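Lay summary. Proteins are chains of building blocks that fold into shapes, and those shapes determine what they do. In this project we predict the shape from the chain. Here is one chain we studied, written as its sequence of building blocks.
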Amino acid sequence: MLKIVFPGLAMIAVTYALARLSFGLFLPDISNSLELSESDSGLVGSTAYLSYSIALLVSAALIKKLGQHKVIVIAGLTAVLGLSGIASAQSYLHLVISMFIAGIGSGLASPALSQAAQSALSKQELDQGNTWINSGTSFGVILTGPIVLLFAEHWRLSYIFFAIIAIGVLYWNYYSIPSRYDQKQAMDQKMNWLSVMNKSKFLLLASLISGISSSIYWTFSRSYITVEYNMTTNESVVFWIIMGVAGIVGGAAGGFIQKLGLAWSYRLLLFLLFISIVLLTVPLNWTHYFSAALFGSSYIFLTGLFIVWATRIFSVLPALGVSLSFLALGIGQALGSFFAGRLIEMTSYPFSFILFAGIGLIGLFFPTEKAADSC
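And here is the predicted shape, written in a compact code that computers can read:
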């Protein structure tokens, strides 16, 4: 199992945390260097989401045509190219193109790695393998935090360092994840999209609602604690690192789900996510860090659960289920971030965070076990 999990975890860390999430942490210095306006910066960030969504949409077809091993390699290559492009960006257009390329890898990596795990791991190992791979985002976030503190003013060197790490991870995945497990012949049947959407409707709704609810935290939590509680830059980065460290616990989601069951695990994690968002509105220092720890762990747990849920629904082509779930999650986060910003301007940070936390509770009413057992 470790031969699949460790390189897969590293690939998720590179494609999600280094190639996508790190941009927000370095944004002030990048904006100063390239003289970007706020609207320019927003558009640059959205290009990574756009390429991520496009990659998710085509990932199942690519895996069907090329096999998961080649798609994993493509994901790593796009991360290397994107990170190198960001490091060398001399203009707004150069940065936009580089961010677009950097975002592709995250949309390809999760579906391809879930397919690789399905092919190479036993049924007993599958849930744990998938959720540990998914926790790679947290390891990447932990890595980016200290680098921001040490090298924020030298963001180009940081991205060169990230690109070197991406090359090493690409090499590791190429030689560690065997291509002999590609099972393209099992995916040659014609896709019935009506049946696909019917099977996955509750998974997609749960992913969408979770994306909307969590979006305000990913986008505005650092702004909240600096504006409302006057936290310093260093304190806010520590807050971010705590989220990453806590997210490692999410790697144990597979075993947790097997013991508690998919339905109860989902509802418990959704409730903990609600508590973590609400806690940020409590004006006490310790609650902010506790909120970060609870949010990081419950979010990674929850996304790991969506992978498990998807692989149970689509036992032959889990990459399709993971692609659809993460696409719904991403759409929810994009919509949520847009409306959260408007709501904060119209009302306040506390009201907006509590409202978005409440939206997440809608997901408690979606069935899980019945859908998972239907395949």
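What the prediction tells us: Residues 184-188, 371-375 have pLDDT under 50 and may be disordered.
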